Amino acid sequence: MNHDAYSDAYIRDILATNRTIAMVGASPNPLRPSYFAMKYLKQKGFRLIPVNPGQEGNTILGERVYASLAAIEEKVDIVDIFRNSEAALGITQEAIAIGARVVWMQLGVRNDEAARLAEEADLKVVMNRCPKIEYGRLSGELSWAGVNSRTLSSKRPLLGPEGVQHRVIATKA
Amino acid sequence: MTEERAPGFNTLAIHAGAQPDPATGARATPIYQTTSFVFDNVEHAAALFNLETFGNIYTRIMNPTQAVLEERMAALEGGTAGLAVASGHAAQALVFHTLLSPGDEFIAARQLYGGSINQFTHSFKKCGWEVEWADTTDPDSFRAALTPKTKAIFVESIANPGGIITDLEGIAAVAKEAGVPLIVDNTLATPYLMRPIEYGADIVVHSLTKFLGGHGNSIGGAIVDCGTFDWLKSGRYPTLSAPCASYHGITLAETFGNFAFAIAARVLALRDFGPALSPFNAFLILTGIETLPLRMQRHCDNALAVATWLSGHDRVAWVNYAGLPGNAFHEAAKRYSPKGAGAVFTFGLKGGYEAGVALVSNVKLFSHLANIGDTRSLIIHPASTTHRQLTDEQRSRAGAGPEVVRLSVGLENVEDLIADLDQGLSTA
Fold first, then answer.
1. Does B42 touch chain A (CB under 8 A)?
2. pTM confidence score
């Protein structure tokens, strides 16, 4: 699979059909991109489970922090990697071991060997993308900031349940 | 619509950024003529102000009509994000305010719109941003002007008024070597003729007032973030690469990735200086953009016919139009702008200053005014108007000497335009 570019359908399907995200490298610091992403995705209805050995036992945004993926008792759909490209390999192997469906690496994080291993185990892989930005882009919310969503549609966007300034992802364009 | 095919330019000009209105199903973009927007609750408001989530707060900073225009501009230029503001001048001021601090320098081509020359020479100087001038036809002159304080390079893709086609790739190479962003004013070309991102531009600016709006009815400006510059690398752009005091210490380039520059220009400079675009202007400009491909092609075709006719006229000393074979920039035009050489060009009258004044007074179809890029054909004598505030030397370097007349060729029947110039020249 080509990891230089992803079709919108591929990303949309992953975001629309998965619910539980284990965020590896989650930070309690409200200024960090991982905190922003966690807060936003929670608001969009995802279940977020932070993983950070240095924060084990603490909570981030009200969620208990685990030391490792293996320690999580519930089923994880997406493993979201906020660590560097080298660390992504080990984390991907753990993601495969816990039966996750998707390995998602953040902006600037790319490990092709990890991707190959994951795909051989039938997991989907996304690299060098932020799920917050992709959700915003495909739902239309990012367009409010003048960002090029690189989508075209003649359909009305879907309103979110919370109010008029919220969009949810459409399952097709 | 399948996702494997990228939509064509004409399709993007009509559709990019726009979807039917979710509240009513309205197909045309509504004009959100409102100053403010209600919040769902206190948490929602806080998230908006902290930049944790996107949405609408206040029309000085964002507006849904304007957002469609911004995304459309980004899509047409091939960039990551757009920011629409009150004027092209405002767009430039916000770009430089986001990048430079007092004591910094930037290099600009001498061959620029007179308004930009004034802005750089006077108001930017007052902010402590020093301009070093270089020759848009000579990338080495930019290299020679580099100093350790240089923070940006600025050129026009097709230069106003003389229709010079800039060697964008050559200058982009200098910018890349120096680790500074290349800012390109693409007003005269529009992305229909040329997309500076394809030649190494990092930021593109526009006066939407001109060919993009296209109908001479709305002043507006735009910034397009090409998403190509690494703001974190050198540490010389702390607005983007250092913790932002204004937003609790987040680092904008980390949080917003390849559209961080557009966000920074909006949430800092636009927020604090306030040159906001009117939602009504945004709507009119958007409507104009829908026909950009048709209009630009007709503009270029008409301009070529008028320039060709003028070059055979006995009262005309020279015509500067890159579309004419033999022009110094004809080959550059074929390379950078193959669909056409634009619609703005100058010509020199053998009768000098007085002949220029006489011609602009005699024409009956061309409008004598300071603008370019209208459906209507326009004429001006720069030496007595747009470039009046410059020195003789600046005027001459900018291609606006005493005998020079500038045309912006519109969409009328070209025979009518030629007839008007013919009768106007008969007494010039």
1. no
2. 0.95
